């Protein structure tokens, strides 16, 4: 069963990765770099100050940073425990895939997916009562995860699990930390 799932994951990755078009490579490389999303992070934090009092806004920003740190820490622990090679480091795939980046660490599960979905879920839950359009922020993690396949560094299973873990962490922190803290502060 496990072998079959890995084969499907690998086949789906090869197919999705092959959909990349050379003219868009620069776009996907840009999208996949975390530092290029800094203006969005700043917008998130500004929105906390629009919605909440100054003290609550600082709690919201701090909580978002805790969500980020916890998700990143858990991701690194799991990656180093599981030790799944990234597609770009798998010699069996070298002739079959397009590789635009070559990170050396492990693949399972995607930190980009986990962190972006965790932060987005937490922020959407914190801001949805004021801004009904806030769900549009999910475009960020969707673009982010697509980039990871198109640059050749994550299997779809890595992305799916990362997104589920991230969404769960974002929801958990909102329910058990953020919601109460932002209401009480």
UniProtKB/TrEMBL annotation:
<keyword id="KW-0472">Membrane</keyword>
<feature type="transmembrane region" description="Helical">
    <location>
        <begin position="134"/>
        <end position="153"/>
    </location>
</feature>
<keyword id="KW-1133">Transmembrane helix</keyword>
<dbReference type="InterPro" id="IPR000326">
    <property type="entry name" value="PAP2/HPO"/>
</dbReference>
<feature type="transmembrane region" description="Helical">
    <location>
        <begin position="37"/>
        <end position="53"/>
    </location>
</feature>
<dbReference type="Pfam" id="PF01569">
    <property type="entry name" value="PAP2"/>
</dbReference>
<keyword id="KW-0812">Transmembrane</keyword>
<dbReference type="InterPro" id="IPR036938">
    <property type="entry name" value="PAP2/HPO_sf"/>
</dbReference>
<feature type="transmembrane region" description="Helical">
    <location>
        <begin position="159"/>
        <end position="177"/>
    </location>
</feature>
<feature type="domain" description="Phosphatidic acid phosphatase type 2/haloperoxidase">
    <location>
        <begin position="61"/>
        <end position="174"/>
    </location>
</feature>
<protein>
    <submittedName>
        <fullName>Phosphatidic acid phosphatase</fullName>
    </submittedName>
</protein>
<feature type="transmembrane region" description="Helical">
    <location>
        <begin position="106"/>
        <end position="127"/>
    </location>
</feature>
<feature type="transmembrane region" description="Helical">
    <location>
        <begin position="58"/>
        <end position="78"/>
    </location>
</feature>
């Amino acid at each position: 069963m496990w072998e079959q799932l890995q084969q499907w994951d690998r086949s789906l990755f090869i197919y999705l990765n092959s959909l990349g078009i050379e003219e868009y490579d620069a776009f996907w490389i840009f999208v996949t770099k975390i530092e290029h999303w800094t203006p969005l992070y700043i917008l998130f934090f500004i929105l906390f100050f629009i919605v909440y009092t100054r003290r609550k806004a600082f709690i919201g920003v701090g909580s978002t940073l805790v969500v980020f740190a916890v998700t990143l820490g858990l991701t690194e622990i799991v990656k180093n425990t599981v030790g799944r090679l990234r597609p770009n480091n798998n010699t069996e795939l070298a002739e079959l895939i397009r590789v635009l980046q070559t990170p050396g660490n492990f693949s399972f599960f995607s930190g980009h997916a986990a962190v972006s979905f965790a932060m987005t879920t937490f922020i959407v839950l914190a801001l949805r009562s004021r801004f009904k359009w806030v769900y549009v922020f999910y475009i960020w993690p969707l673009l982010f995860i697509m980039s990871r396949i198109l640059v050749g560094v994550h299997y779809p299973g890595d992305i799916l699990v990362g997104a589920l873990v991230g969404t769960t962490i974002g929801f958990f922190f909102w329910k058990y930390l953020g919601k109460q803290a932002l209401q009480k502060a």
